[in-house]
Amino acid sequence: MGVEILGLAIPVLAALLLGGSLVEGLGGDAREVLSYLWWGAFGTTGNLLTTLRWATPLILSGLAVSVAYRAGLLNMGGEGQIYAGAFCAALVGVHVSAPASVHVPLALLASLLGGAAFALVPALLRVYLRVNEIVTTLMFNYMGVLLTEFLVLATYFSGGATTAVEIATPRIAETAAIARVVPRYPLSWGIVGSVLVAVLVFAVLRRTVWGYEVEAVGASEPFAEYAGVRVRRVALAVFLLSGAIAGLAGGLEVLGTNRRFVSRFSTGLGFDGILVALLGRTDPLGMIAAGLFLAVLKNGFFAVERLTDVDRNVAIVLQAVILLFVSSRALIDLVRRFRRGGDRHVGGA
């Protein structure tokens, strides 16, 4: 454990030193930037709650990538799956009438099914036709964003919407809304759900026969087949589970934060999930810490941009430097794994 903590602390410190040097070299005050970064993430109750609000979808987005990776698959379509899940949750939230005890679970189930359905085609292409899942899932990201936007326009508008913010569904029913921890802030009790899902996935992967089969497929497809694992069935199930988790992230955004589906609501949450997976070393429990870490940077740098003279682009570069240093070891491990074992994974390359 001490070695793992040291292995994380060293790159963080190195990134802060390099980032501070960058800020100083451009005429800024590194200590001021770090101070506002900390204040933006934790300085007030509102800032802390907003940080946790960002951690909610980031944990699930990273978990979606990690689950697929455990079976040797790279699901890069989290963004599209998030939109699909969010749209399905909004439809149930707007058009279904039910008590809260039924309405919320039903809307969450719709988000799970929406995300899984959007992962189905890339999963089938990968498992049965050996089509590279990276390409197909990346393509489906654009389809998810644009298709949901088109459906909102076609269903709720006859004209007049001019911006992405205006392209939105009606507000969901109160019975479908997930309560907020503090009413005036956007953090909902979905944060508890995100953590529980991460713990549940960890338990399934580490304590069940199916989890062992997933790990076996990810380690070596020939070995898994020799051991009697139905490789294609496991890979397909994992891919759909990955999409469902991403869809749940979108559902929580609609039901807990926005209370309606808004076009372009995701600020790259699906792509951020790749970073979360790297930071957490694809461990389900690691997604909790990694999602929180990235949320700290995201919310902290909002304050840096607002309250200092540091240019927005410098803030983005500084954030990228920190992420690069922290995730470098995991990124190297990932590249080595796929170079060494890419041809062994489900369906070949």
Describe the structure in your own words:
Keywords: Cell membrane, Membrane, Transmembrane, Transmembrane helix. It is found in: Cell membrane. GO terms for molecular function: transmembrane transporter activity. Helix 3 packs parallel to helix 7. The protein has 349 residues and is mainly α. The protein has a single domain, classed as Orthogonal Bundle (ABC transporter involved in vitamin B12 uptake, BtuC). The chain contains 13 helices and no strands.
Features:
globular, single chain, 349 residues, transmembrane transporter activity, 75% helix, mainly alpha
Structural class: mainly alpha
N- to C-terminal separation? 36 Å
The CATH architecture: Orthogonal Bundle
Overall shape: globular
Number of strands: 0
Can you give the helix content as a percent range?
over 70%
Overall number of structural domains:
1
Q: Can you tell me the CATH topology?
A: ABC transporter involved in vitamin B12 uptake, BtuC
Poorly predicted runs are none
Write the layout of secondary structure elements.
Elements (H helix, E strand, L loop, with lengths): L1 H24 L4 H13 L2 H26 L7 H18 L4 H30 L3 H24 L33 H18 L1 H11 L1 H6 L4 H28 L10 H11 L6 H22 L4 H30 L8
Helix pairs in contact: 1-2, 1-13, 2-3, 2-12, 3-7, 3-10, 3-11, 3-12, 4-5, 4-6, 4-10, 4-11, 5-6, 5-10, 7-8, 8-10, 11-12, 12-13
